[in-house]
Specification:
Elements: E1 5-6, H1 13-22, H2 27-35, H3 45-56, H4 59-73, H5 77-101, H6 108-115, H7 118-155, E2 168-171, E3 176-179, H8 187-201, H9 204-229, H10 251-262, H11 268-274, H12 282-311, H13 322-327, H14 334-368, H15 387-403, H16 406-434, H17 452-464, H18 468-492, H19 503-511, H20 520-529, H21 544-549, E4 561-562, H22 563-567
Antiparallel strand pairs: 1-4, 2-3
Helix pairs in contact: 3-9, 3-11, 3-12, 3-14, 4-10, 4-12, 5-10, 5-12, 5-16, 5-17, 6-7, 6-16, 7-8, 7-14, 7-15, 7-16, 7-18, 8-14, 8-15, 9-12, 9-14, 11-12, 11-14, 14-15, 16-17, 16-18
Biased composition (Polar residues): 584-594
Region (Disordered): 568-594
Subcellular location: Membrane
């Protein structure tokens, strides 16, 4: 019986939507994008470790340690850091494997696109936008507190709260916002966010050497605090180590809430993977950057929290600059306070730099996939940086830092981080099944389950134990993201929307080997007229080994549906998850166009 050609409209709507939601971006396409990058590959192994340390050591030590101890865990914040470090370590293994396989800017978004499909990739991409944007604003607020403290200790100048604090506060007991009387806007926080944005627009090379210098400075300062303040430790301050529960604070649950809060401190190694397209040898150097920076910073976090809770009662630490505040209760510490303030100012500056570097690159990658308007995927003609998303991210970050308190911003960043950890760990398991033979510069040890499964489950438990308002805010943000996806991303996606492909898109996917080339289309049409399917694995001249390597988009082909395709006698067009096998790519692919 002769097979009749079908158009995309002949496919039931529910099937088309289903394909769109689970359409995966082929690993080959992702790798091709990385090989064609226009960004400058200038970051080596030490650069990437410095990027990670620059993002990790910052607000976690200089700001959130005190808040988590005072409001959540007491001295047991040490345990909170250990738990967060263990979960982050498990996830770091997963990040390292995926980063060595998919060394492309976009981080967890790119990994999810290759493993779970377009819709989940959008969700995690939208989540990462929140994580990096709100994270940078959190750090900017902490930077403001230390610069104010520095001017007071060195010059005797005291700024009024009108221009250095947010106009609202968060009440942890009542779980509600309150007016911060006398405060209008945090101008120093706005200033540093805009300054770092300008620096990033001028290029990664200029900001890279600045970041390395700043990382060295703050490492020295952190060590100075550990060894300079340890002589003031009073063991009585550790009792009770786990304070009895009081309202929404302390107790065993308080330890886990503290863990959720300090998770913000570990997002730096994720920022390493967003710089993949600027790395000289991403498959080898990204795992070093991720695991190396996380290991160094976890040890320092545990040491700082141990000393901090030992030199002052945890109940006094609910301030934005806990390290210098704690030292004020001890004699002959003025010189140490000034050095720590300088280190905090430099250190937090580098964190803002890294976070504002990562967020635009996620927008950049999503725009290249059609999820956002093309303007977000443009590089500056001179500096080769994604200047449009960088300017937008910096501006929004400045606004958030100027009007919101540090605990609200920090909590939102932490839950975003946890969600990313969950999906990345799941992604490793999926990639072990779908691409078992793909080249990996690093493999998660102990098999496909022993590390990723606990990493995902523990992160999920901590996420569920977060405060209700924080979870509600995350859901609201994700709901807004789904609306944006339906209104724009779903309609303009390059991978999942073949009927809207332009000539450049056609060439792009032909180069990747996931669509018929002009040379093969006539032959396919001859098959169709002869009664055969255009997708016929028995008669195709495609080399089977090459077909095995090519991961198609998971979407029915744009122009050559047949009755076999629609009815399921050939390749099923339903939700079964079987990918439509493409025709062979040309022997000499052209360069992909964007």
């Amino acid at each position: 019986m002769e097979a009749t050609a079908a158009t995309p409209e002949a496919v039931p709507l529910w099937k088309r939507i289903g394909f769109r939601l689970i359409a995966r971006k082929p690993l080959e396409v992702i790798l091709q994008e990385g090989s064609k990058t226009q960004m400058r590959r200038v970051l080596g192994r030490l650069d990437l470790i410095a990027v990670g340390i620059g993002a990790i050591i910052g607000t976690g030590i200089f700001v959130l340690t005190g808040v988590a101890a005072a409001e959540n865990a007491g001295p047991a914040v040490i345990i909170s850091f250990i738990i967060a470090g263990v979960v982050s370590g498990l996830s770091a293994f997963s990040y390292s494997e995926l980063a060595s396989m998919v060394p492309i800017s976009g981080s967890a978004y790119t990994y999810t696109y290759a493993t779970m499909g377009e819709f989940m990739a959008w969700i995690i991409g939208w989540d990462l936008i929140l994580e990096y944007l709100v994270g940078a604003a959190t750090v900017a607020v902490g930077w403001s507190a230390y610069i104010v403290s520095f001017f007071k200790d060195v010059f005797g100048v005291e700024f009024t709260k009108k221009t250095t604090q947010a106009p609202v506060l968060w009440d942890n007991d009542e779980l509600a916002f309150k007016v911060n009387h006398g405060a209008y806007i945090n101008i120093p926080a706005i200033f540093i966010a805009l300054l770092m944005t300008c620096l990033l627009v001028f290029g990664i090379r200029q900001s890279s050497w600045i970041n390395q210098t700043v990382v060295c400075i703050k490492l020295v300062v952190v060590l100075l605090f550990i060894f300079g303040a340890c002589k003031y430790v009073d063991r009585d301050n550790y009792h009770p180590f786990v304070p009895p529960r009081e309202g929404n604070s302390y107790g065993a649950k308080g330890v886990f809430k503290g863990t959720q809060r300090v998770f913000f401190a570990y997002i730096g190694f994720d920022a390493v993977s967003t710089a993949a397209q600027e790395a000289k040898d991403p498959q080898k150097d990204l795992p070093w950057g991720i695991c190396g920076s996380l290991t160094i910073c976890t040890v320092l976090y545990i040491a700082v929290s141990t000393v901090l809770c030992g030199i002052i009662s945890y109940k006094e630490l609910n301030v934005a600059s806990p390290l210098t505040f704690a030292l004020e209760f001890h004699d002959n510490t003025r010189w140490l306070r000034i050095l720590i303030e300088l280190g905090a100012i430099c250190g937090l500056s580098s964190v803002i730099l890294i976070l504002l570097m990562g967020q635009p690159r996620i927008l950049f990658t999503m725009a290249r996939d059609g999820m956002f308007p093309k303007i977000f995927g443009r590089l500056h003609h001179r500096f080769k940086t994604p200047y449009v998303p960088t300017i937008l991210a910096g501006t929004v970050c400045a606004v958030l830092a100027g009007v919101l308190p540090v605990d609200i911003l920090g909590d939102m960043t932490s839950v975003g981080t946890l969600l990313a950890f969950i999906l990345v760990n799941i992604g490793v398991i999926i990639m072990r099944y779908t691409h078992p033979d793909a080249e990996r510069g690093f493999r998660v040890p102990l098999g496909r389950f022993l590390i990723p499964v606990p990493g995902a489950l523990i992160a999920l438990v901590i996420l569920v134990l977060s405060d209700g308002p924080t979870i509600y805010r995350l859901f609201i943000w994700l709901a807004v993201g789904i609306i944006v996806y339906v209104l724009y991303g779903y309609r303009h996606s390059r991978v999942g929307n073949p009927e809207r492909w332009s000539e450049e898109d056609l060439e792009y996917f032909q180069d990747a080997g996931i669509m018929n080339t002009e040379e093969n289309i006539p032959a396919a049409n001859e098959k169709e007229h002869a009664g055969g399917s255009t997708i016929d694995s028995d008669k195709s001249s495609v080399d089977q080994d090459q077909m095995h390597k090519v991961q198609p988009v998971g979407m029915p082909e744009a122009h050559h549906y047949t009755s076999q395709d629609i009815n399921g006698s050939g390749h099923d067009a339903g939700f079964g998850g079987d990918d439509i096998m493409p025709q062979q790519m040309p022997s000499t692919p052209k360069q992909a166009h964007y």
